[in-house]
Structure formats: C-alpha cells, structure tokens
Amino acid sequence: MQQPDPRRLSLNTATVRKQWSLDKIIDGCARHEIHGISPWRDQVQALGLERTAQMIRSNELTVSGYCRGGMFPGIDEAARRTADDDNRRAVDEALAVNAACLVLVVGGLPGDSKDITGARSQVRDGLGRLLEYSRNVGMPLAIEPLHPMYAADRACINTLEQANDVCDELGDDGLGMAVDLYHTWWDPKFFQQIERAGRKRILGFHICDWLVPTQHLLLDRGMMGDGVIDIRAARQAVEALGYQGAHEVEIFSEHNWWQRDPDSVLATCKARHLTHC
Q1: What is residue 1's predicted lDDT score, i.e. its pLDDT?
Q2: In Å, what is the CA distance from 219 to each residue of 23, 207, 224?
Q3: Beta carbons of 7 and 277 less than 8 angstroms apart
Q4: Which residues of the chain fall below pLDDT 50?
C-alpha cells in the first residue's frame, strides 16, 4: 500500500484551538499547505459563519467535517425539542461551509438517569427526526462512536458495531460514521465492522495516538507516532474499502501540543502524517 497522500491531510481545529482563533487557523492551514480543515461550531460563531465560509473558500480548503451536532437525549420533551432545533441549525451551518458531513457526538444519560438503553433509544429517535431534515437538504450525518469511558456523559454509542446497527435501522441514505481512532483503536471488531460499514458509511477518518500512560482521558491525546495505535493499518483498511476522504488530525492536549508554537504543531502534523499514517 502506498504512503498516505499528503493532499488528504486535514486539520481538526481543536488541535491548535488554545493558541489560535479560527481565522488564524485557516491562514495557518493555507500557509502550511494543509488542504483540509474541520472547524468547531463555537469557533465559527466567534468568527462569524459568513466570514468563515468566505475564508475557507478563498483559501481553497476542503471541509472534511463540521463539529458537531448530536446530544440527542433529554430529560423531557422540551429538552429534546431544544436539541432538535440546535441540530437543524448545525446542519445549516455545515451546509454554509460546504462540509463533507456533520459529525455527531450523540449524547449520554440525561439528567440523573441510569437507563442507558433508554438513552440509546432517544439517540435513535433523535437521529430519525434530524434525518428528515438533513436528507432533504443534502447534508450527510456521521455518527462518531466514542470510547466507552464517555458512555455516561458524551456518547452512549461506543462501538462501530453499534453505529452500524443504527445505520441498518435508519438507512444508509445520508447517514454513516466518523471513524476516530482515539475512540475505536481498541475495538476487537474494528476491522470486521469497518468492512461491514464499507465505503458508503465511512464518512470521516480521524487520527491521533493513544499515549501510555494517558494522563487525562479527554485532554491528553498523542501526536501520531507517540503512542500505541497502528494508524497505518487502520488507514490502509479503510482505503482498501474505497474510502477517499480526508485523514483528519484531531488532538486535545492540554499540557503538550496546546502549549507549543502552533506553526510547529502544524509542521509536525504534516511530517507525522507521512511517517505514521
């Protein structure tokens, strides 16, 4: 299998969000010849949706994904309606920046609930409602399974198998998954389930590394090559299925990469993409 195509590298803006505002991140991607970007909604709001879209277009960047929608479960009907309204706005924003997909972190247990089965039912129902809107306007939705440590508060869909099951139930039209290796590298059914997903369902591929030891389960992701994930094997597997999308670097790193010069971080992303992806 060939080396990764450097033109497919994309930067999730979380990777340098502590050092740079979104306009500086866009300029940095252009300056470092990183051709893809995946912005977060709060950063877009701060810069302005129209200006964000204009800057992305003028710098000829591809938007590999828009972060994020989801958080479907609610303690009552009013909370679920609020989430529905916000998710439709997220779809509209994703369209405005010409994103390849809207990434969904689906949500965990609402309130003081201990009913994870009920939370997953709420996710399925909320997704179904959002699909009625997103399919009509043509914005694909990408379920992002998160590591089980986040099942209670962030995402009660935790494996690729669960994501595939939801896609089976709701249909492939405009619905798939974002394969984030930080969350899925450990899954004993990883290769089986990405083969089941196939080219049509794999809408995003996110890369970083899992450090040993990990000092913080949210804010201590590693740069590619610094941890234990076989990133290249995963990349080769998704591309063997026909995946032609971006390799999106997404690193939350409170005490390491967020403390470094952001130009150095982007240069390292480019170098490590070639040597470890």
Answers
A1: 54
A2: 23, 15, 15
A3: no
A4: none
50/237 Cα distance (integer angstroms): 37
Q: Residue 134 and residue 153: Cα distance in Å, rounded?
A: 25
- Per the listing, tokens 């962030």 go with 154
- pTM above 0.90? yes
Residue 35 CA to residue 50 CA, distance in Å, equals 20
Amino acid (1-letter code) at residue 30: A
- Which pairs with CB-CB distance under 8 Å and at least 24 residues apart come from 130-137? 130/69, 130/84, 130/87, 130/88, 130/91, 131/170, 131/171, 131/174, 131/175, 133/88, 133/91, 134/91, 134/102, 134/174, 135/173, 135/174, 137/91, 137/92, 137/95
pLDDT, tens digit, 9 for 90 and up, residues 107-134: 999 999 999 999 999 999 999 999 999 9
CB-CB contact of 154 with 105 (8 Å): yes
Q: β-strand 202-207 against 175-180: which pairing, if any?
A: parallel
In contact, 36 and 8? CB cutoff 8 Å: yes
Q: Which pairs with CB-CB distance under 8 Å and at least 24 residues apart come from 238-244?
A: 238/179, 238/194, 238/202, 238/205, 239/1, 240/1, 241/194, 241/195, 241/197, 241/198, 241/199, 241/202, 242/198, 242/199, 243/199, 243/202, 243/205, 244/199
pLDDT, residue 2, reads 79
CA distance 61 to 33: 9
